[in-house]
Design a protein that fits this description.
- The chain has one domain.
- Helices cover about 80% and strands about 0% of the residues.
- The protein has 7 helices and no strands.
- The N and C termini lie far apart (about 55 Å).
Length: about 170
């Protein structure tokens, strides 16, 4: 198995989870689906950037920078979903936007970015990347979700939901 097969499987799984999340109703099932989406997408994007994108940057700079920006947008949307109430009327609209962004990202990545990668790395290297990706993705998936968002992003999320944890009358 090479990196492209592993990434494609992750893409299909993520899009499937997003479809289920979009169709869900507020409650425990929606919360569980959202947690799975955040968990899988954050581990995937961080591992993909380190294992593939960073190695492609000098070979396909524009495509790689675009893909990283799309990952940033996906992460931002995940942060917003993580801080929303599950019954917020905008929840399903935001999930739909995330799905659309991810579908576009996957389409361009699997066609254009992978073509550049396949031209740059022979099949043995692509197989090695697969092993590295799986190890890193699995390691990242064991970290708490908010820690994967990064320090700056974590602070933004904490600031956005901090009021929930402050005692009444605390005016910090």
């Amino acid at each position: 198995m090479d990196i492209y097969e592993i990434l494609h499987t992750d893409h299909v799984n993520a899009l499937g989870l997003l479809a289920k999340l979009h169709a869900s109703h507020p409650g425990a099932a929606r919360k569980e689906l959202l947690t799975s989406v955040i968990d899988q997408l954050t581990a995937h994007t961080l591992a993909e950037e380190e294992i593939l994108y960073d190695r492609l940057l000098d070979r396909a700079r524009e495509l790689t920078l675009e893909a990283k920006e799309e990952h940033f947008l996906v992460t931002r949307l995940l942060e917003e979903l993580a801080t929303m109430r599950l019954e917020d009327e905008r929840f399903t609209a935001k999930v739909k936007v995330l799905s659309d962004v991810l579908e576009h990202h996957v389409r361009v990545e699997e066609a254009d970015l992978w073509a550049a990668a396949k031209a740059s790395f022979d099949p043995i290297i692509a197989q090695n990347f697969a092993g590295e990706f799986i190890v890193l993705r699995d390691k990242l998936s064991k970290r708490p979700i908010l820690m994967r968002l990064g320090e700056t992003r974590l602070k933004k999320v904490v600031d956005a939901v901090g009021h929930v944890f402050q005692p009444a009358g605390d005016q910090r």
